[in-house]
Input
Amino acid sequence: MSFLLPIFDTIYIDQSACNSEVSQRVQSLYPADIIHFIDSENSLDKNNSKKNVQMSAEEFNASKKTLLLTTFKGQFFKRCPGATQKKSLTCCNYFVLNLGSQCNMNCSYCYLQSYLNSKITKIYVNIEDALNELKAIADKHPDQPFRVGTGEIIDSLSLDILTLYSRRLIKFFKQYPRWILEFKTKSDCVEQFIDIPGAANIVVSWSINPPFVINSEEHGTARFEERLSAAKKCRDAGYRVAFHIDPMIYHENWKENYSYLAEELAKNFSARDIQVISIGSLRFQPEQRHLMRERFGFDSLVNQAEMFPSEGGKLRYDAGLRSEMFSFMYKKLKSLNSDLNIFLCMETPETWIKALEKMPMQVPELKEMFKPLPDVRS
Ligand code: SF4
Output
């Protein structure tokens, strides 16, 4: 198996992580002179993760190049942040399993710019604890269709070559066929698990945009063709794939470019291959705007956008433009393949009605995904 090693300038390994498999693997892959053993995260800069203090552009950039291997003492398995705004946003019952934080890629719109306050990338080496936590809940509710994603605050696969967590997770979820595991990525790192036969409840998904938007805004990610090629490998190995056309970004030729994206998906995948396609639009917290400007300049499409305050305190395109973009994409995809399951991500009921003319519970193939589940975590 050949792969490109993620680039880090400095790697810290704390005492609690020293003997882990991940630590051994990292030590075998990186030069010894960039690896430092520390007592705990507290021995790093005291200001490393001050609550409510946003990082500067320089600190945020540096946080992508510094890695800490540590153990996580909190709760791994949580509801998706969209669920906490249930009243204003339509919730698709998503759960997240956080096995680290920060990302080694660099999208201009990335919400981590306002979400994270730690100046390092972290990988939690204690996956056993995460799996034990999951097992306790899965054993209680094996027949509930929980959807669990590992790509909320760290990409699911771009650092997987260091952890090989995909292999552990696939094995675990195969024991609970009603539960769905989703690896969400903008990388093409799939070789490390592709020898394991897929299963209907293991989904590998790509956040995807037209090549023009990827090239302009999604720095350090796999290019459009690379993502499609990785998705085809997964499909051929028996995995289901999914695509998140999110965030749709408005630009001069958006209709042509998003049509091309829809056509490429329809050309390469059947509705049976694709578990779901979600569509979302550009959104971010107002406080990250200055960081985006400083880090990506005014040529960036996201910095040229006219944005308005909306639900959850985020800035979004105005409701009219959002509905126009969603409706266009939905109709285009359905015209190419009427069997595709398509839903809107983190959107208001009003936008669902305006863009799709129905709520998810009125769409037979989306009903299961949106029906309320027992509140095991809030
Ligand atoms: S791939 Fe996702 S997490 Fe990584 S920089 Fe892009 S938006 Fe952020």
Q: What stands out?
A: The chain has a mean pLDDT of 90. The chain has 14 helices and 18 strands.
